[in-house]
Amino acid sequence: MAPDHGSFGLGALICALMLICPAASIRPISDAHRSAALELFVPVDGLFPSLEETYHALRTFLILGVGETSEINRATCPVVLEKLKSPSSSPKGFYDALRVNSILGCQIGSETLEDVASQLRDLIKGADSLMDFYYSVIGLLHVKGQGVSAVLSDAQGVFHSIKALSQSDGRWRFDSNNAESSTHAAGIALEALAGVVSLADGEVDQSKIGIVKHDIVKLFDSIKSYDDGTLYFHEKHIDGSEYEGPLATTASVVRGVASFAAVVSGKLNIPGDKIFGIAKFLLTIGVPGISKDFFNQIDSLSYIENNRISIPLILSLPSTVLSLTTKDQLKVEVTTVFGSAAPPLTVNLVQTSTSEVKNTPTVENQELQFDQENNIHYLDIVPLKIDIGKYTLKFEISLHDPENLNIYATGGRMQYLVFLTGYVKVDNPQIGVLDTDGESSASLVKLDFSKLDKVSLVANHLQKMRLSFQLVTPLGHTFKPHQVYIKLRHEGRVEHIFQLESSARQYKIQLDFLALLEQIYYLSGRYEIELAIGDAAMENSFLHILGHIDLTLPDPPEKVSRPPPQSVDRYSRFGPKQEILHIFRTPEKRPPKELSFTFLGFTLLPLGGFLIGLLTLGVNLKGFPSSSLPALSSILFHAGIAATLLLYGLFWLKFDLFTTLKLLGLLGVFLVFTGHRTLSYLASTSTKTKTN
Amino acid sequence: MLTFRELEFKMAKSSTSDAQALFRSLRSAYAATPTNLKIIDLYVVYAITTAVIQVVYMGIVGSFPFNSFLAGVLSCVGTAVLAVCLRIQVNKENKEFKDLPPERAFADFVLCNLVLHLVVINFLG
Hints:
The structure holds 2 protein chains of 2 kinds.
Chain A (H helix, E strand, L loop, with lengths): L4 H16 L10 H10 L10 H14 L5 H16 L5 H14 L5 H17 L3 H16 L9 H10 L7 E2 L7 E2 H17 L6 H16 L2 E2 L5 E2 L13 H18 L8 H13 L6 H15 L5 E2 L1 E3 L4 E3 L5 E7 L9 E10 L9 E4 L1 E3 L4 E5 L8 E11 L4 H4 E2 L3 E9 L3 E10 L10 E2 L8 E6 L3 E9 L10 E8 L3 E6 L1 E2 L4 E6 H4 L8 E10 L7 E11 L40 H25 L10 H26 L3 H35 L1
Parallel strand pairs in A: 5-14, 7-15, 18-25
Antiparallel strand pairs in A: 1-2, 3-4, 6-8, 8-12, 9-10, 9-13, 11-12, 13-15, 16-17, 16-19, 19-23, 20-21, 20-24, 22-23, 24-25
Helix pairs in contact in A: 2-3, 3-5, 3-13, 4-5, 5-7, 6-7, 7-9, 8-9, 9-11, 11-13, 12-13, 17-18
Chain B lengths: L3 H28 L3 H27 L4 H25 L11 H23 L1
Helix pairs in contact in B: 2-3, 3-4
Pfam families (chain B): DAD (PF02109)
Subcellular location (chain B): Endoplasmic reticulum membrane
Keywords (chain B): Apoptosis, Endoplasmic reticulum, Membrane, Transmembrane, Transmembrane helix
């Protein structure tokens, strides 16, 4: 129908592909997360299904600063107390109860806690798997946090045992029997080692700590990345039963590394860009819908927020669509992952680039001004003389205090996609009808879009219709929008869409009706003319009815196609369809019933004749065996035959072949038995009479 | 000397009397057959008659459910054929089947009839 929709589709695809490289704007944790947390973690009468989930909920509420914990406190504290007092608790049980208690602060006697501490110390002595070490050490750490003294006597030994499970690539094994290493285990092990260092009564050997630092660097070598620069951890071997996704694995590593960095002296040799990439990964998840994922995201971000390696600073754009008409400002926020204030810094707009309008100069190296009150960096774009369109902006952050470079990670150059919109003017629109030789029969009429008067044109098939105009941006340049179409609608039903060609300065179309005769199905009459112009950067995209044109076309020749049937009502195609009348083969003529029944009677006559004949012959049943057993088998034999005939009757009436064959098989066996009995008896009696 | 007419009459009379004599001799010979063979013969006659009636019916009304017609006729003719086989095997004067006990022949007859009628009922539709 309309020419060349395909090229627009291809253009859109290319634009979409180019969109992958500039980042979608990431936002720090905001109130959307806070309200989602309250919706995801909902206790039933103050209780959560397990202590682990209770901890997830409480920690999330604590970090985000939301939630009402008094009812949870009242309902959960007894459970915690019971768990701590129970003599048969496993390390995991103590761990769950203690970490919930560290947030709730239940009233637990110091005796109970000391008892728990000594049990945990015993468990550590006898532990051999990574999880046992982890639960016991972290449990003991929480006990210490509640004021009871808990000191690990053989810290060196415990450190050594945990370290023994590590692999050369920086991963850890879960226990010595399991040969497969896991990244998730590495995070757990690092957290446990950090706990051991805090609980040690003396200094832990610095050389061992150095080796662990080295392991952490190797672990970071295995980090994976997506195209948009986010970094994450994932398992090398994915074991079906214990699969943890990238989020859980990354969260575990972040916790471990951050805890370890917090307790040891000296810096860890991890570049700030990697922490930035991980923070970006955690933020681009958005608001997760599963409570465990939500906890992992918020918990690991809280470790990143205050970590000792480098704190990432997130640059985010509150709005990516800026209007020239309302003189918007480009606004940029720089905060930590939780939206807290960043240290003093300047944001530089390094470069803007566009794929479309080529003659506007790209802006380079503009410094954004800082609004102290609202903590926003802004830039007025109107003085920059940028035209409307789609732009990729590159930003760079520079910190004022050079010391802060060691503490914060700025993330280098970041790209964002921004739309600049504005009002597009239609200049010099002209429409008219031309004769074949190109001369206008009437002069071209100037259209005025602000006034609503419509043009009335008349043409026959030898003439052409011409429409032309120019599109001008607010800055006075020629604009090429995505969609420029003209639609001719015949008497409200058949529509034809044509695309306008664009030259360097203007858009125009010349409809040659002689060439279009077949396309418009030779339909004469009044055609309504509509013009549609639209683009994402255009604030005044429109669909205007310009007027109408009365076309006089010759009669269609024989072979022309009819226009496709138009539905009267838009929804009529959902209504009931025309009924389909099936044509069956005319049934054969059957004879009248009386005739058929008469002949049925005739068919039964020979049977009567047969019986009469038998009687005439003097048939008797003297040969029927008289003694009981043969008589019984004879009777059963005849009954079997009768049953078979009955089965055949039922087969004709309703059974299928399979049932019949099944039953026939059974009857057949029965018949063989009884028949053999009967006939052998008869045979023996007949030989007896013969010999006698 | 006989005239041509008298000769004709005599020949006709003799042919009819020959036919009658033949018929009478057949009848008397047939009377000598054992009863069980007579029963079988009666059965065959019954089966064939039924088949003939069916054919006449088809001749009247046309062969629309042809499979039903064939099934009916096959049933009659098939059972007649099996009865004839039974007669051959049971007949004591038949030297070929001297050692075959008649009960065995009868068992075969019953079995074959059952199979035949299974096929017939399936084909009846």
